[in-house]
Amino acid sequence: MKVHKDDQVEILSGNDSGKRGRVLKVYPESNRVIVEGINFIKRHTKPSQKQPQGGIVTKEAPISASNVKIVCPKCGSASRIGYKKIANETRGKSERVRYCKKCDEMLVKTS
Ligand SMILES: [Zn+2]
Fold it and tell me: Quick check: 3 pLDDT over 90?
């Protein structure tokens, strides 16, 4: 998957189209992502110790990863992302990294 956790993404379709948010979770098996503040749904919860009455919580629901575009942290545009191979000197082999096709900035995992 191109989209990783903690990426900044822009939403391409639906009610939240054009909004931006941070990726909280990715589901590679289903090609879906959860984006902070995007696609809120209401869920009824069962009574618990904290909330003896039960209640309604709103939380983000997963959306398709094909409906988001990665926002480049450097140039700030929701641009096209490509892959390039770079040599990883500590591991002695090359690895695939994502890069912004607009400004050429590499999007390296921070975590
Ligand atoms: Zn860029």
Answer: yes
SS3 5: coil
Q: What is the pLDDT of residue 109?
A: 66
Token output for 78:
């929701």
Residue 10: both structure tokens together: 């822009």
Question: How many Å lie between the centroid of ligand 1 and the Cα of residue 93?
Answer: 26
The model's pTM is: 0.80
Q: How many angstroms separate the alpha carbon of residue 60 from the centre of ligand 1? A: 27
**Each residue's pLDDT tens digit, 94-106:** 888 999 999 999 9
Q: Please give the CATH number for the structural domain made up of 8-79.
A: 2.30.30.30
51 C-alpha to ligand 1 centroid (Å): 45
Question: For residue 89, how far is its CA from the centre of ligand 1 (angstroms)?
Answer: 25
User: In a 3-state reduction of DSSP, which class is residue 65?
Assistant: helix
Sketch the domain layout of the chain as residue ranges. Answer: 8-79
